[in-house]
Amino acid sequence: MRLITIFLVMVEHSILPFVVAGDNTKKIEDAYNNILYHLLLDGTIIVQTFFVMSGCLLAYYLELFASKGKLNWKIIPKGIFLRWLRLTPPYFIVLAFIMTWARFTGSGPLWHKIMDAEVGDCRRDGWLNMLYVNNYVDRSQCMMHTWYLAADMQLSILGLITLVVAKSNRARIVVLSALFSISLIIPSVQTYYQDLYAYFTITPEFVRALFRNNPTFNAYRRGHTNISCYVAGLSLGLLINNLQKTKIDMKIYAKYKYLYWMLVPIGIGVVLTSGIFYMDGMDVPLVYKAIHSGALRGVAGILICAIILGMVLRIEDTYRRILEWQGWTTPTRLSYSAYLLHLIVIEILTGTRTTLIYVTEFQMMVVIIGTSIVTFLIAVPFWLLVEAPVSQFIKVVFPAKDK
């Protein structure tokens, strides 16, 4: 699921060369009237999968520590440090490359527009990325796609504190329910009082500005506006652990497989709901935008949790066989490296163009597939030389029995 989500994020970001260097711009404008394109334009909600999975794994492993009597206040600073150590070295290498050598990797009429601002911002604000607070810094264009890493780090701290403070099942139900309820209100209030769009949608103006100065995007990437899916993930991790402890016969859930198959079509329908808020001739009241802004994340989190829970309970074999295919193993190991590197590949591809692109569906597929292949090929040596050694170092210094 993580690999598929990262690939979909790459697809979203691959729009950049077509918007910045597109020849037939009317093709791009007409895409907003095509419902199928809205799966791409409104598909930014897919990033919530990361938060659900992160929260689920955190809660699940903390429950294992709790069963050994190791869940105490000491786990909070140690957990924060281990997560920082796991994410930061590969992140720092990519950041250092952007600060130093990136501007020498290409040239062209668009090169300075694409690269100069990011290089300058990384030199000035890169240290904020290393502290994982860059999603609250609106002035910086430094590695914009890493807002997710900052938000995830912030939510991990929230999750650690929540589960350490609330140790009993009753306390966790109360606290997590309260957090989930509050998390639905926060985006709604922010959308209403700042007069934002119902949800962050990719627009030509936003892409041409290279992700700058978009109030809706700024609100979208905050840690506090993404709490709902993380809390849903925490609840899912606790639920899975409890189900395994009770050793329930999973076969009794097989009767729900037809309902389970509906989750993906329902999810597609949920994604498409954002499109009605900016259709031509539609003037939706701000209060409805606010309600949608809060509810969308909550509904998405519940659907993603339901899909993961169905995998655990083995409700059916169709989705499960796809997601459990052994062919995902190797590219999944490369997924974090690919996530860090893919936007650089797209920016170099865009900045080095000397001609305009005639936008067609076939041309878009060629760029998307080509970008993905190049990114994962670059990710192989990066993983071997940076990410894998760091991961092994952490395992040696902090053995599993000590974590």
Compute the separation of the termini in Å: 26 Å
Strand content: under 5%
Oligomer: single chain
Helices, by number, come to 19
Task: List the secondary-structure elements in sequence, H or E.
Answer: HHHHHHHHHHHHHHHHHHH
Mass-distribution shape: globular
Secondary structural class: mainly alpha
What is the alpha-carbon Rg in Å? 21 Å
What kind of sheet is the major sheet?
none
Low-pLDDT segments, ≥5 res? none
* Count of β-strands: 0
Q: Please, what is the average pLDDT?
A: 88
Percentage of residues assigned to helices: 55-70%
Note the topology:
Layout: H1 2-13, H2 16-20, H3 25-31, H4 35-41, H5 48-67, H6 75-100, H7 111-130, H8 147-165, H9 169-194, H10 204-208, H11 215-220, H12 227-246, H13 257-261, H14 263-272, H15 286-313, H16 318-323, H17 329-333, H18 335-351, H19 361-397
Would you mind describing this structure in some detail?
This protein is mainly alpha-helical. It has a domain at 47-327. The protein has helices spanning 2-13, 16-20, 25-31, 35-41, 48-67, 75-100, 111-130, 147-165, 169-194, 204-208, 215-220, 227-246, 257-261, 263-272, 286-313, 318-323, 329-333, 335-351, 361-397. The two termini are 26 Å apart.
Q: TL;DR of this structure?
A:
The chain has 403 residues and is mainly α. It has 19 helices and no strands.
